[in-house]
Amino acid sequence: MIKRVAIYCGSRMGNETKFAHAAAALATFLAQQEIGIVYGGSQSGLMGVVADAALAAGGEVIGVMPGNLEQREKTHSGLTEVRLVSSMHERKALMAELADAFVALPGGIGTLDELVEIWCWANIGDHNKPCACFDVDQFWQPFFDLLAHIRQQGFAHQGADILRAREPDQLLRKLINHRQATSSAQH
User: Fold this and answer.
1) What are the alphabetically sorted keywords of the record (predicted)?
2) Into which CATH architecture does domain 4-186 fall?
3) Which site from 49, 89, 110, 132 is most exposed, i.e. has the minimal number of CB atoms within 10 Å?
4) Could you give the CA distance from residue 49 to residue 43 in angstroms, rounded to a whole number?
């Protein structure tokens, strides 16, 4: 069962409005499905769009904000809950604990860092929660090309795949199917 999804995304808006539209659509859809969101806690960029859309749809939104980013990224003031932590390491660990699945929207190096780290944790057995990219207009295609290159060159280990979807309902189905498959495999 998926009760909360951690969303990793940019603290900037990106160059095209399609990113904000997709972020809002996903957050609204999750809230309508009564699935809470855990995210970095900022009011800036796509992070703010996600929070605003989910809250407007009546959803739960938990922000996890490291103290050293609180001023620079401006903590969102309307969240269901804000958890202040001392470092990015604590942020990642708490988000992993609070979420049942992980989704990356378009973003920068921080988004990529969070996605790759949580996926690595799945591959070494620290969790069996699904990791996915919400692939707005093939934003993540270069990343998937790199992963294919790593496999082709013989550096990839067998393990959990990163899921990929372009529509909110498709994404949720993939997350749920992954959770059900890993739950039944454990029994």
Assistant:
1) Cytokinin biosynthesis, Hydrolase
2) 3-Layer(aba) Sandwich (3.40)
3) 89
4) 8
